[in-house]
Amino acid sequence: MNEIDAYPLALPSWDNKEIEAIQKVIDSGRYSMGDSVSEFEQKFADKFGSRYAVMVNSGSSANLLAIDALRYKKDNPLKPGDEVIVPSLSWSTTYAPLYQCGLKLVFVDVDLSTLNLDVSQLELALSNKTKAMMVPNILGNPADYGVIKKFCEHHNLYLIEDNCESMGATLDGRYAGTFGLCGTFSTFFSHHITTMEGGVVVTDDEEIYHILLCLRSHGWTRHLPKDNTLCTKVENSFYESFRFILPGYNLRPIEMMGAIGVEQLKKLDGFLEKRRQNAQYFRELFEDDERFILQKSNGDSAWFGFSLVLTEKADVTRDQIVIHLAAANIETRPIIAGNFLENETIKYFDYRVVGDHQAAARIHKDGFFLGNHHIDLRPYLNYLKKVL
User: Fold this and answer.
1) The pTM is what?
2) The one catalytic residue among 154, 191, 210, 324
3) Among 9, 95, 264, 306, fewest CB within 10 Å belongs to which?
4) What tens digit of pLDDT does each residue of 52-63 get?
């Protein structure tokens, strides 16, 4: 292992296979969404054991599409003012689609050890307006779906998983992202596989699948199968290809993204194995360091990255450490968006807060994050240990 003097937040994972896939799309002359996207969707659904997968242009769009689809269900749709339970630690686009769909957010704290939603707060969060839960799996770590699923089933709530950071994670032998009515994934540059930008929604529900297809493409019927749950399609109709039945978006990926995704998906298991080996070594280096709290794995984490939260035994502040690491060319970032209740954008939201959110506040003040990658990180982690 060579000596290194920098530790980047993310590294590229493409080789000639992805470049060749891009070139095939260029040679075909078809750049808009087509056969390569369809192939990726089918292989993605097969990989994770879902009936349907719908590719979109980002993980953030996947969240928007999953939430928005629930507003158009024939039975028991989401309506403006309905409440959705969320943790106070996640990325902004866990929350923004709820605001954009006119829903009220109900914030509960997270568990300081797993960083996931604190399930002990669920009954306190419940009201007669509660209709759904939006649950992110934080930094590769599945949330406690043994409790969450029972809670949702008992109270007849929709469960949507924001699995954008946790592709390949499992709990009790089941893939994260497949516990709810919908699960979302991201294929952004720094994530487990990358199409540069990109995202996926998976579901086993045929009606939701058809709504997703429609909303993804302007709300029109063009991409719906002939036999669908939303409308009766008129074959060979001049107007059918521009028939709009829902107020949709343009969230479509381009054909290159699908072609790249097919190649990246072949490598996912190898990428996950390396990430888990890196995590094991990271824990060996730091689990006895009393200055830090490390994330506790729930199930088999996909180890998106490595979080460190300062303890009372640390004799420096988080900001001092971040400055010190930056001087050593070690890239860091906050743990996701920190406590979202402390972000300025919260003033635009309709929300209520359950409990005191001590864990999220602690993470916001004392936590930082380092990247994990698809390669052997032992030299980088040794360097991190030396600098710290």
Assistant:
1) 0.97
2) 191
3) 9
4) 999 999 999 999
